[in-house]
Automatic annotation (TrEMBL):
Record's keyword terms, sorted: Lyase, Manganese, Metal-binding, NAD, Oxidoreductase
Cell compartments where the protein resides: Cytoplasm
Substrates-to-products reaction catalysed: (2R,3R)-tartrate + H(+) = (R)-glycerate + CO2; tartrate + NAD(+) = 2-hydroxy-3-oxosuccinate + NADH + H(+); (2R,3S)-tartrate + NAD(+) = 2-hydroxy-3-oxosuccinate + NADH + H(+); (R)-malate + NAD(+) = pyruvate + CO2 + NADH
E.C. code: 1.1.1.83, 1.1.1.93, 4.1.1.73
PANTHER family, per the entry: D-MALATE DEHYDROGENASE [DECARBOXYLATING]
Protein's organism: Rhizobium oryzicola
Name of the molecule in the record: D-malate dehydrogenase [decarboxylating]
Domain Isopropylmalate dehydrogenase-like per the UniProt entry, residue ranges: 5-342
Xref: Pfam families: Iso_dh
Function: Has multiple catalytic activities. Apart from catalyzing the oxidation of (+)-tartrate to oxaloglycolate, also converts meso-tartrate to D-glycerate and catalyzes the oxidative decarboxylation of D-malate to pyruvate.
UniProt keyword Lipid biosynthesis present: no
Residue stretches in coiled coil: none
Length: 349
């Protein structure tokens, strides 16, 4: 029997609840589909940091390298560990080290879910650059605490990095409805974003079948709310993609629905699957986190691992559950209730 080796990193807050839920669903579908999923759990988190002084061991990246994929819950417990320490100690280094440059974030309104726009048929795919740009980590502070203090945070855009993500966006658009929105702020940012616009134009000649439009990110944000049906695939830089995907999550009914795949398209290292949301300290420990985003991310993981039928079965179960009104209202149904309903839908097929 085919066995996929998965590294499980529940992380902080609701991260454990949602990864437990997704794992139960994944195990069910694996058993029913005739393949095996073998997990190794890593306790890397803010609690781990408090015990060891590190978010993951020094050889953490090398340890993860031998897995077929990584499933992650959420990282961050800002009351005890600054986000700048926790995220730069665990999540962001994994994305970079494993060249997971394509962050795929689908936004669809599932049946029965009341999004704030009541945008029926809302279906956008956001492709976010995931390894450079505004998240380069380059910069510094001088004269800390003084009146003349200066903080510099340098965005780094490389031709290789920009080309590969825009090309990825074109490919995704070609496989969907043939429309690509390339997002910049080239009216204000005259180097990196003009560079991005130029590369979009250059690549467009290779994809005559894709209708590409360049938008400024502010206008695109408004368009996502006012005319979401005019959009298909969006390709954006790291920070713009981050912001637009929380907006996409809101339109699809909340952060509990938004899935995310950090893909290494060359398959030279494992890809990582996680919800768009964070550790949600405000609801942690209450048992009411919506696990659908992580279950959906788990389906994206199966798809990436070549288990297309199993992934499709999960993606049929989720709307079957929401259509019954289960999991559609934040806080109404427990994590366990929603998980059990997804498993029941899978086994009822
Ligand atoms: P958040 O996504 O954790 O929470 C924002 C809001 O959405 C909260 O009201 C929360 O209750 C709600 N929410 C999130 N997930 C939900 C779910 N599954 N079901 C129901 N409601 C849900 O964002 P935040 O509060 O800005 O961040 C909290 C911590 O998580 C911070 O440390 C932040 O840096 C970190 N974070 C981590 C990741 C990640 O690991 N990928 C992503 C985002 C934020
Ligand atoms: C996300 C998160 C992360 C990001 C944070 C926690 C660093 O918001 O995955 O969307 O900005 O990439
Ligand atoms: Mn985010």
């Amino acid at each position: 029997m085919k066995t996929h080796k998965i590294a499980l990193i529940p992380g902080d807050g609701i991260g454990r609840d949602v990864t437990d839920a997704a794992w139960a669903v994944l195990q069910t579908v694996a058993t029913n589909s005739g393949f095996a999923l073998e997990s190794t759990q890593f306790p890397w988190s803010c609690a781990f940091y408090k015990q060891t002084g590190r978010m993951m061991p020094e050889d953490g990246i090398e340890t993860l390298r031998s897995f077929d994929a990584i499933l992650l819950g959420a990282v961050g417990w800002p009351a005890e560990v600054p986000d700048s320490v926790s995220l730069h100690g665990l999540l962001l280094p994994i994305r970079k080290a494993f060249v997971q440059y394509a962050n795929i974030r689908p936004h669809r309104l599932l049946p029965g879910v009341q999004g704030p726009l009541k945008a029926e048929g809302f279906d956008i795919l956001c492709i976010r650059e995931n390894t450079e740009g505004e998240y380069s980590g380059a910069g510094g502070r001088v004269h800390q605490g003084m009146d003349n203090e200066v903080a510099v945070e340098t965005s780094i855009f490389t031709r290789k990095g920009v080309e590969r993500i825009i090309r990825f966006g074109f490919e995704q658009a070609r496989a969907r409805r043939g429309k690509l929105a390339s997002v910049t702020k080239s009216n204000a940012q005259k180097y990196s974003m003009v560079f991005w616009d130029e590369i979009t134009k250059q690549l467009a000649t290779e994809y005559p079948d894709v209708e590409v439009t360049s938008y400024h990110v502010d206008a695109l944000a408004a368009r996502m709310v006012m005319a979401p049906e005019s959009l298909d695939v969006i390709v954006a830089s790291n920070l713009f993609g981050d912001i637009l995907t929380d907006l996409g999550a809101a339109i699809q009914g909340g952060l509990g629905f938004a899935a995310s795949a950090n893909i290494n398209p060359d398959r030279s290292a494992p890809s990582m699957f996680e919800p768009v949301h964070g550790s949600a300290p405000d609801i942690a420990g209450k048992g009411i986190a919506n696990p659908m985003a992580t279950i959906w991310s788990g389906a994206m993981m199966l798809d990436h691992l070549g288990e297309r039928d199993a992934a499709a079965r999960i993606m049929e179960a989720l709307p079957a559950v929401t259509a019954k009104g289960i999991g559609t209202t934040p806080g109404k149904d427990s994590t366990d209730t929603i998980t059990a309903a997804v498993i029941a839908a899978l086994t009822a097929e």
